[in-house]
Every structure is written in structure tokens, then in C-alpha cells.
Write a sequence for this structure.
């Protein structure tokens, strides 16, 4: 089992920045991909970004490309989402996730490919 805990959310003005962190505990994450998803009120959960285990492979949603950067520290079992130039439409609950299967080079982008989820952290961007 893997437990994921997000932190770093909050209220920020448009144009500002936030850095989300995800702390993983439990079994090793060796070989497993980690991703970030978000869900705004009344909307479906959507993919934000994901990172393979190694090799620097990652995927970023078009809506956040150029503004959000994903990274991970496997030794510390941490994942991060640096969010810059935030917009009101980025307001959502952000979830950290990890796969149950190994992804050494490819990057899963569908929620159903992830088996472990954090409780979420609220990000609110005011205009």
C-alpha cells in the first residue's frame, strides 16, 4: 500500500505561484509513475501532469503547459508541482496519485491508470 499526502495549496492572486508537495509512504515507489490531477466544482477530474519513474519523461496538460512543472525526488519519496502564472481557472482541488504498475519510461495520463490517491489540497486563484 501507498499513502499520499498533499500540501502547499492555498489562496493566491492571479499571476502568483504555488508549489504543491506530495509525500509518499508505504511500499517503495521504485518504477512507479506519479501524477497530479485536479477537480474543479461541478467539473470532472482532469489530468494536470505526470512523471515516469526515471529518465525525465513527463507529460503536461495543454491547459497548464509552460506554467506548471512537475518533479519528483525518488530518494525522499516526494513529488512536486510548481505552479506559476496562476489563473482563476486553475482553481480546483489538486490530487497527487501513484500507479500500482511500473512505468519506467512511459507516462500514464488517465486517472484509471493510477491506483493510489491523496486526499487533495485546495488551490484557489482570485482574479
Amino acid at each position: 500500500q501507498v499513502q499520499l499526502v498533499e500540501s502547499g495549496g492555498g489562496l493566491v492572486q492571479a499571476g502568483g505561484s504555488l508549489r504543491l508537495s506530495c509525500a509518499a509512504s508505504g511500499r517503495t515507489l521504485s518504477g512507479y509513475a506519479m501524477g497530479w490531477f485536479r477537480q474543479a466544482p461541478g467539473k470532472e477530474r482532469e489530468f494536470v501532469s505526470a512523471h515516469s519513474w526515471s529518465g525525465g519523461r513527463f507529460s503536461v496538460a495543454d491547459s497548464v503547459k509552460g506554467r506548471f512543472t512537475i518533479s519528483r525526488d525518488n530518494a525522499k519519496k516526494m513529488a512536486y508541482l510548481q505552479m506559476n502564472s496562476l489563473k482563476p481557472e486553475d482553481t480546483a482541488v489538486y490530487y497527487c496519485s501513484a500507479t500500482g504498475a511500473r512505468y519506467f519510461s512511459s507516462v500514464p495520463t488517465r486517472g484509471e491508470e493510477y491506483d493510489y490517491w491523496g486526499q487533495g489540497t485546495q488551490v484557489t486563484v482570485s482574479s
About this structure: The chain has a mean pLDDT of 93. The radius of gyration is 14 Å. The chain has no helices and eleven strands. Residues 72 and 114 are 16 Å apart (CA to CA).
